[in-house]
Amino acid sequence: MTTLLPRSTLPKLAAILGASTLAMATPAIAEAAVDPQFATFTPSANPNNDTVDYSIWDEAMKNLVVSMGPSLRESAGRPDPSYGTRRQYGHVSRYRLEGSRVMFSFLNPEIRSSFTEYRKDLESTASQIDIQALSRNEQLAYWINLHNVAMVEQIANAWPVRQPREIMVDGVPLDDAKFITVEGIALSPRDIREKIVYTHWKNPKVIYGFWRGDIGGPSIQREAFNAENVVRLLDRGAREFVNSLRGTEKAGDTLEVSTIYQESAPFFFPNFEADVRAHLAEFAEEEVRGILAATTATRASISEYDIADLAGGLREPTYQNIQSAEGVSASFRIPQSMARLLAQREEKFRKIIREGRTGTVTFSNIKLPDEGENDGQVE
């Protein structure tokens, strides 16, 4: 077994951010056609045992990402304007207490440049080992991590920005900009999703691994993907998104779903209404199961393009002093709107505890009776 660890300046991230980190059944579908330009990335039929070590990115995610907790399926009301101004700073989205947030406003130039270096390290990894010959889970983890590193890098460089879709890279919208190069082939974030992963993986839960940088999409996880945890993290992302307001809602007799399902329909949901409903049913909890049963029509209409950060993509001129975690004799200033969002998050967690909604059981690396050899693989 060969284990490769991309080098990077990212290990400095924990030290730099440490003082300011806040305490707080697959539908049957036809095989997708392979674009000849990307045919080289077709997974090998004879995988090897090589692995890639993502501990550097794992450490970064634990320092950078703030989870907003599970959705309560309650719309967050519009907040009051910041003190001393009529202007609305921070997040106003009704989905602002769902998903996860990246702390872009805390990043200095050294950290931002380290993202670019790490993205290039991941690209060069493909020239040191045969990515296509890795196990399917190992390949999937590579593509998800590379995609998400690239998105964090570009949004960090462009911040402050209200919506990631406004970002242009050499005059091209971020999602379609070919600033990633693997094995000499220029790739965009969309290419990684659609031309590589969606083409070669049949299970639609892969869509929950890819972070788009906005509130309306799947959450970015607080740990890097790897061959051992990719199934668990995709299942976690799927359950969180399917049971959130930004994933599913009821409007009369219609099931409203996120537009990400329409985007991925050519790969996973050819018979859109029936296939999407079957997929949602796999991860739906009680309330969403009720919505599925009580509706007959399906429409992809839910979207939210505001940035998934803590500050709403703006530099606010007014700040509030915050005392750090208990036992740490330090304090720092954060924008009033960010303090308000974190206070709302804290109140949400208190409600979760009061209502007894806590508790998650995860099985990992356990072979159950009657399981096949590939039950732990994302196909």
**SSE order in H/E notation?**
EHEHEEHHEEEEHHEEHHHHEEEH
Q: Give me the number of helical elements.
A: 11
Helix content: 25-40%
What is the general shape? globular
Largest sheet: 3 strands, mixed
Beta content: 5-15%
What structural class is derived from the secondary structure elements?
Answer: alpha+beta
| Major sheet strand order | 9-10-11
Separation, N- and C-terminal Cα atoms: 22 Å
Question: Number of folding domains?
Answer: 1
Kindly provide the radius of gyration, computed on alpha-carbon positions and rounded to a whole number of angstroms.
Answer: 21 Å
Poorly predicted sequence stretches spanning 5 or more consecutive residues: 19-30, 361-374
Number of strands: 13
Key terms for this structure?
single chain, alpha+beta, three-stranded mixed β-sheet, two-stranded parallel sheet, 11 helices, 13 strands, about 10% strand, globular
